[in-house]
Amino acid sequence: MGKTYERIDGRLRTFIEEQHIFFTATSPLDADGTVNLSPKGVSGSFAVVDERTVAYLDFAGSTAETVAHLRENGRITLMWCAFQGPPNIVRVHGRGEPVFRDDPRFPALLGHFPSVDPASHGLRAIIVVTAELIRDSCGYGVPFMAYDEDRSLHADRFRREDDASLSAYFGKKEHIATSIDGLPGLPLPLPALPAAPAG
To answer: How far apart are CA 54 and CA 190, in angstroms?
Structure first.
């Protein structure tokens, strides 16, 4: 049976942090708009900030639907599935915000991801989610699948870019600055990537 949690701690936090992939779902307010569902899976790119707040790194890609939807309405759901071990599914429903490179909060948030070189992945923003509803469910229908390793292709592709060339790359993509449904997406040009605070 599913259970509702007041906070992300203990066994729940351990489960979330051990998963190698999670999924994000967002949508525009327009009932005819495009619902977006994205997998996220670079090791070290997710963090539990506190008992009600999580964050993940938003890397370079061919669209910016999540960013656009969060800028419009803030609604987001994150989901983790147990592909190994006891079956389980955890969903965090909440309010999300893209924190961009020029936001004063960005350097401190970046400090939550010490094992990831943001320049290697074309980091665009940090998505911060405040949990409003935290639930799990049985996960009996989720298959067993083994994790081998992260793919190196994303880092191999984007570590060649600097801030200027990354902005130029995004500028050529149809749905980076504007979403599929015409909503404001990633603000361009991309500000310089600040360094994480020392220590």
So the answer is: 24
Q: What CATH number does residue 147 fall under?
A: 2.30.110.10
Q: Is residue 194 part of a domain?
A: no
Q: Indicate if the alpha-carbon torsion angle 195, 196, 197, 198 is positive or negative.
A: negative
Residue 158 has phi, psi (to 5 degrees) of: -95, -10
Name the β-bridge partners of 175. 63
The whole-number mean pLDDT for each consecutive block of 10 residues of the chain, a chain of 199 residues, reads 91 96 98 97 96 97 96 98 96 98 96 93 97 96 96 94 94 96 97 72
Q: What is the pTM of this model?
A: 0.95
At 147 the three-state DSSP class reads: coil
- Six-digit token pair at 159? 């570590």
Number of separate helices (H) and strands (E) present in the chain: 5, 8
Contact 131, 92 (CB under 8 A): yes
Distance CA 96, CA 70 (A): 6
> What is the number of structural domains in the chain?
1
